[in-house]
Amino acid sequence: MIRIRKSCLEKWKRKCTYCGKKDIPLQVEHIQPKSKGGSDRVSNLCLACEKCNQKKGNQSVGEFLRKKPQIRSLILKQAKTSLRDAATVNATRWKLFNSLKETGLIATIGSGGQTKFNRTTRKLPKAHCIDAACVGEVGIVEFKTQQPLQAICRGQGGRQKAAVNKYGYPIRYNPLKPIKGWCSGDIGKNLETGEVGRVNPRSKSNSFNFTVTGKKAKSIHVSKLRLVQRKDGYTYKFCSLLTINVQENAV
Q: CA dihedral defined by 226, 232, 234, 235, rounded to 10 degrees?
């Protein structure tokens, strides 16, 4: 039963199939009632909140959603989808976990339900960084800051020497980098305003594109820029403030 419930959670995205609500207690429900010929196969199971489950009762999904044909069609289509993708993700997780254990590193795993239990019992808000701290067996959770730093992988850029048209013929050649000591993605500081942003150099101009998070790119002369950090394939930004008390431990 536990494996079936986990399969349903993966398949139906951890939300009520009928009303779409999340972060509420969910029940495993038969799309076609057993009293009307429905089976216990995973393809006939979905997730429903208590209110929708009681309201649907012994009705088939066609009867229950007769006034909402679009939602009914989506549910029937989703019910037929394979769990192959979910199985692949789970297999990848176990492979990664076993590889980490072989290195001698301390690795901890846990279910999504356990993570949610650890977070809710400590009265912590929902956030990815907090969920990461609540995985597995958790004792005291101590926060050093209310504003975590988010790192987003952007890659190291392309190696294509020329841009081509739809026929494969080159239409322009990409300049060799660095350009005047700068590479695309370097972090620079505007000496006039003190703003910090990403720099995109131009090969035929002394003015570079300068982009500050949340603002449009603007042109700025290279002499007014100072290097802060070389590109490393990531962009960084601070997340929104968390409603937690960093002075007290959540136990």
A: 0
Structure tokens at 122: 């400590």
The reply to whether the predicted model has a pTM over 0.85 is no
Q: Show pLDDT as tens, one digit a residue, over the chain (251 residues).
A: 566 777 788 788 888 999 988 888 889 899 988 888 888 888 888 999 999 999 998 898 888 988 888 888 888 888 887 666 667 777 888 888 889 889 988 887 777 778 888 888 888 888 888 888 888 888 888 888 888 888 888 777 677 778 888 898 988 877 777 888 888 889 999 999 999 998 988 877 889 999 998 889 999 999 999 999 998 888 888 887 777 765 544 44
Domain limits, CATH 2.30.30, in the chain:
156-232
Phi, psi of 150 (to 5 degrees): -105, 125
Q: Where in the chain is the domain with CATH 1.10.30?
A: 2-84
- Choose which CATH entry (3.30.360, 2.60.40, 3.90.1310, 1.10.30) describes domain 2-84: 1.10.30
- In this structure, how many other beta carbons lie within 10 angstroms of the beta carbon of residue 19? 13
Q: In 10 A of CB 125, how many CB atoms?
A: 9
Query: Which secondary structure element, helix H or strand E, spans residue 83, and what is its range?
Result: none
Fold (CATH) for 156-232: SH3 type barrels. (2.30.30)
Q: Looking at the chain, how many residues does it have?
A: 251
Across the chain, where does the E strand assignment appear? 27-30, 45-48, 149-153, 162-164, 170-173, 186-190, 196-200, 207-211, 218-221, 225-229, 234-238
